[in-house]
Amino acid sequence: LRVAELRFNSTEVAAASALLRERQASGSEPDAEIDTRKKTFSEVLAERQEQAQRTVLINCPSKISEKKLLKYLSSHGTIKNHFFYETHGVYAVIEFSGLDSIASLQEATSIPQLEDDCPIPFKSRILTLTLKNPPNQASEKIHFHKQTTVPVGELMSILCNSDNVSDQLQMLTEKYQLTEENTRLRFLACSLIQDIAGAYFPDCIVKPFGSSVNTFGKLGCDLDMFLDLDDIRKNAARRKTGPFNIEYQMKRVSSQRIATQRILSVIGEFIDNFGPGCVSVQKILNARCPLVRFSHQPSGFQCDLTANNRIAMRSTELLYIYGSLDPRVRALVFGVRCWARTHGITSSIPGPWITNFALTVMVLFFLQKRQPPIVPTLDQLKELADMEDKQIIEGYDCTFVSNLNKIKPTENTETLDLLLGDFFEYFGNFAFNKYSLNIRKGKEQNKPEASALYIQNPFEQSLNISKNVNATQLERFVSLARESAWLLQQEGKGPSSNRSQLWGLAALLQASGMSNASKGIKRKRGPASERIKSLLDSLKINTNTGKRPFGTQ
Ligand code: CTP
Ligand code: MG
Predict the structure, then answer these.
(1) Looking at residue 142, what DSSP letter applies?
(2) Which of 401, 191, 468 is closest to 303 using CA atoms?
(3) How does pLDDT run across 50-81, given as a tens digit for each residue?
(4) Which of 224, 337, 467 gets mutated to test ligand 1 (max ligand atoms within 8 A of its CB)?
(5) Ligand 1 shell residues, CB under 6 Å
(6) N or C: less crowded end of the chain, CB within 10 Å?
(7) What was the pLDDT predicted at 242?
(8) Angstrom distances, CA of residue 522 to CA of 406, 525, 529
(9) For the stretch 362-382, what's the b/e string if a residue is b when 16 or more beta carbons lie within 10 angstroms of its beta carbon?
(10) Cα–Cα–Cα angle for 430, 318, 441, rounded to 5 degrees
(11) What sign results for the dihedral spanned by CA atoms 40, 42, 43, 47?
(12) Whose CA is nearest to atom 13 of ligand 1?
């Protein structure tokens, strides 16, 4: 189960262990018969979407009896799962066993009678529960599930107490990855927006994509949503039987882009005017990929709603596959992303910075170049595809295998210690001026044009996913990568005898040592030994000083 722990959340692993023990104890089934098949991306998505539809979000008073609440709600049906969290108030996420419970609960819910304001009577699955009488006794303490990452000081001390860099990377991944509850909340937020879009397009599906579901998401990352109207078209195609063709009369526009802009514009208006808890709605319809950006207060997510974005959905699935193949992939990506964020290589503001997506592709490329490779190339994943996996989107071949069980595990046994150091060394010395990175082939190729950093889009192969990156930002990346490689080599790979000193990954994440490079300030390079000395001096900081090396994200 050690490997599984990184891929599945703790609840799933605990359930699997219990099942395993139960079956072994009863002797009813030999181990080999236990279903260890890894789920496909579509299966995971479909399961979670269905779960989200049976779920409501309830704003509760802060002093509430969990038992009484559950008993009260159980009159509408069996509650399968629930948890609490705090954001702008206390919220309970309640998953019922059946969809009919939602209808029953909504039936019993009234429209608020407000004194000064007037409610817009859009009935969503976000409810408010109040107590008729104040509680007459102190209620038991509710456990709130945290939806944010551990504070930096705590992280640094966890990292310093690890045994080696590999453990540090695994710890970072464990502490930063999305929790089961956070993932549920992400799917619920999508499902709530689906209810809104469903007012116009009843068969639509709103799916999360990007880091919420590609296995590389960090607590607090944005929620990318994809409004999928395609199922509507598929249904229509199936009904074309008999001697006639019958189709809907529909308004026509001159391009798919205009259609997408119109749809997003109207849904953006709905979200803005009627969506409970949806604030700061911005329609960014002239972007390359039109979107509606808003803040969903009840869940605390910053959301980007797009439509007609199937290729991004496909690249999300591709990353999901890579992230599920070998635990080293996620650990290395989490480490590199965190390192990049700390040093301002990536940013939450759009601009000439390298994006998390581009960084992830760089890690994948590096892992393809190992001997033997740790992950296959996209062309190899395409060779493993069967008929159902074939997908041509907007003329681009997006075919690759969806069944993870068909991909042979790597024979490479290199440690994460080695990989992290070599990643920095590899890209610290990469000829970015000459070559582009291509994960479809797992090879560098001559750059087709003069962008500073050229990472070929795996599907729209004539596009560069890092076109936005300028020469200054690439130089900063390269110089920080060199310094980091060098720092890891100097230090050795283990903790110092004095555990309060930052070492390994913790030292790399400490910004001050490399602040000059990270700010892009040109500095006079002293002799190497002096630079080492000042760097090491600056790292002699007790982890409990609470110094914050990270930017906000
Ligand atoms: N995407 C893409 N091509 C790009 C940019 C993005 O295909 N040039 C797709 C990727 O699948 C990416 C998703 O859109 O994962 C969402 O993009 P973005 O939010 O920028 O990246 P995330 O992977 O979600 O990372 P972050 O945590 O920074 O949001
Ligand atoms: Mg994102």
Answers:
(1) P
(2) 191
(3) 999 999 999 999 889 999 999 999 999 999 99
(4) 224
(5) 209-211, 214, 221-222, 224, 312, 315-316, 355-357, 465
(6) N
(7) 81
(8) 50, 9, 19
(9) bbbbbbbebeeebbbbbebbb
(10) 45
(11) positive
(12) 210
- Please check the confidence at residue 10 and state whether its pLDDT lies above 50: no
pTM over the 0.90 mark? no
CA 360 to centroid of ligand 1, rounded, Å: 10
Distance (Å, whole) CA 84 – CA 105 = 19
pLDDT digits (tens, 9 = 90+) for 449-502: 999 999 999 999 999 999 999 999 999 999 999 999 999 988 655 776 666 678
Report the nearest atom of ligand 1 relative to the CA of 318: 11
In the reported structure, the alpha carbon of residue 212 is separated from the centroid of ligand 2 by a whole-number distance in angstroms of: 7
Q: Measured in angstroms, how far is the CA atom of residue 224 from the centroid of ligand 2?
A: 5
Distance from Cα 298 to the centre of ligand 1, integer Å: 24
Spacing, Cα 13 to ligand 2 middle (Å) = 26
Residue 313: nearest ligand to its CA?
Answer: 1
DSSP string, 517-536: HHTT-------HHHHHHHHH
Q: Which residues pair with 79 in a beta bridge?
A: 96
Secondary structure class of 508 (helix, strand, coil)? helix
- CA neighbor of 502 nearest in space, from 551, 544, 553: 544
Separation CA 195–CA 18 (nearest Å): 37
Which residue owns the Cα nearest ligand 1 atom 17? 210
Q: Tell me, in angstroms, the distance from the centre of ligand 1 to residue 6's CA.
A: 22
Non-local (6+) Cβ contacts of 6 within 8 A are 170, 173, 174, 327, 330, 331
Residue 172 pLDDT: 97
- Sign of torsion over alpha carbons 354, 355, 361, 362: positive
Strand 392-393, strand 301-307: pairing: unpaired
Given a cut of 80, whether residue 524 has pLDDT beyond it is: no
Query: How many angstroms separate the Cα of 231 from the Cα of each of 202, 206, 218?
Result: 11, 11, 30
Distance of alpha carbon 155 from alpha carbon 257, whole angstroms: 44
Per-residue pLDDT tens digits for 397-430 = 999 999 999 999 999 999 999 999 999 999 999 9
CA 259 to chain centre: 28
Q: Who surrounds ion ligand 2 at CB < 5 A?
A: 210-211, 222, 224
- What average pLDDT does range 526-541 have in this prediction? 40
Is residue 222 within 8 Å of residue 304, measured between CB atoms?
yes
